[in-house]
Amino acid sequence: MDIEKQWPRGQRAAFVANFIRDQIVSGELAASTRINERVLTEQLGVSRTPLREAFKILESEGLLTIEPNRGAMVTAISPQEVELAIEVLIALESVAAERACKHATDAQIDEIQALHDEMVGAWKAGALMRYFHINQTIHQKIVDCAANPTLSRLYMAESQRIRRFRYAGNQISDRWARAVYEHEQILDALRHRQGALLREVLRSHHLSGWRTTRAVLEGEIRL
Amino acid sequence: MDIEKQWPRGQRAAFVANFIRDQIVSGELAASTRINERVLTEQLGVSRTPLREAFKILESEGLLTIEPNRGAMVTAISPQEVELAIEVLIALESVAAERACKHATDAQIDEIQALHDEMVGAWKAGALMRYFHINQTIHQKIVDCAANPTLSRLYMAESQRIRRFRYAGNQISDRWARAVYEHEQILDALRHRQGALLREVLRSHHLSGWRTTRAVLEGEIRL
DNA sequence: CGTTGCCACATTGCATGCAATGTGGCTCGG
DNA sequence: CCGAGCCACATTGCATGCAATGTGGCAACG
Q: B17: closest CA among B68, B55, B70?
């Protein structure tokens, strides 16, 4: 990437971390891939110091595993661990649901509605990647409506950590259609500020999404 | 500290991070304190490279804030943010409660019981610091019983992040006595594997703890 | 006397060199 | 032919030097 282009002093580690994080959460860097410092420094045009600082950031986010003297590799996560993480995500979103219905501004809801419309467009256009990305954004925005920075931070970190696994499930077109329908229920509940309902709709949305995804991951469904 | 003593190659950043983290969560390093790299390198006997890597780790844990060209300082947290973080901690412990009642081994419960007995000892001896530390350990162990690594990891990180604030509330002797009583209810619920009950007891335990702590922080109660 | 601009010093950000460790291939003995 | 040991090379861990940026104090000016 951007060899020669120099990022601002004081933010290089952050930019490098973003770059690697994108590659990991998008699945471009497969699990257990070893990362070579020299290669990356040449790709990114920064020295090893900010690079290694980025490694430490990503390690504490759970995306990289660093073995002393052997370097960094993309953390491997089992479907079992993903399932447990989703349980945590559901808990976080449950708290968010009730709070979001209390604290969301109309502008925030409109923004989510706009994202939803855009997502439906991506669905109809068959743009899976775009759909998936907007989907994630919508969930994050709902959590952000809860006006709880800790909640937003943990939700973002954890959903990114398992993102590469969840992508699989959306490739099933039945699931895709159903998810769009569920999202409409979610928006309704939010718009009518029915916290308990939103919580339950979100919960079953995630559970049914995970059932599909797990089936795909375990090879029970051929694409 | 340990000038001259050299930590093993490959773990220095981690050890430095632990060292600083202890100082922050224990309150020895006050909020907004600027941290000077040169001073720390001399105290710890490591060079600036692992030190700066440790800074990045602690920054992503939310304990340090790094301003470019101005260095690291202990992140300031408002009581408002602490309250919001506690709401998240309660959500995490709620998930943990149900799961812990299903997955806890008898040995784990015995271990928690032993910690509880030790904590009562510290209480009777008036050893506040020791009491507080065991208290935190008990809650972490309960979460660990849930056998969900993500849950354990997030719970630990977040409880450490706000630890320095919660200490204040325990200095009220009424609260201290009540907390011990509540902990007995918690252990009972866990031992009888009553998940829903455990969840509710934990929830009200944290809420009443926070009410006291907030009052102390806001200066409504003189020590 | 207060304010502004400037300069020297302190501190951080990053690149790089060196030492330590890991790794793959080769030799040599069985 | 196979395996163990060894050696050269690749890679990482850390220390340190240099450049960029921030900061506090002093001087000059109003």
A: B55
